[in-house]
Structure prediction request, 74 residues.
Amino acid sequence: MYVCICHGVTEKDIKKAAKQGAQSLHDVKQMTGASSGCGSCADVALDILIESKQQTTPDFLQVIQPKLSIQTTA
Prediction:
């Protein structure tokens, strides 16, 4: 999904910046250019950054949901 139309920045670009160490909206601006044009995407860009920083499971593991089998003895 495009977040910043002015600079063609996607949600994926912001998540990548977060993984590379972006800690603030200012960092995202510096790394991607998002919200450095008209600024209308700043809230969404910051939400994505915060969400990315709170995420502890790597992206590739999010689709894997192992099913635990509980064995009971009778």
About this structure: The first strand starts at residue 2 and ends at 4. Residues 23 and 63 are 26 Å apart (CA to CA). The mean pLDDT is 86.
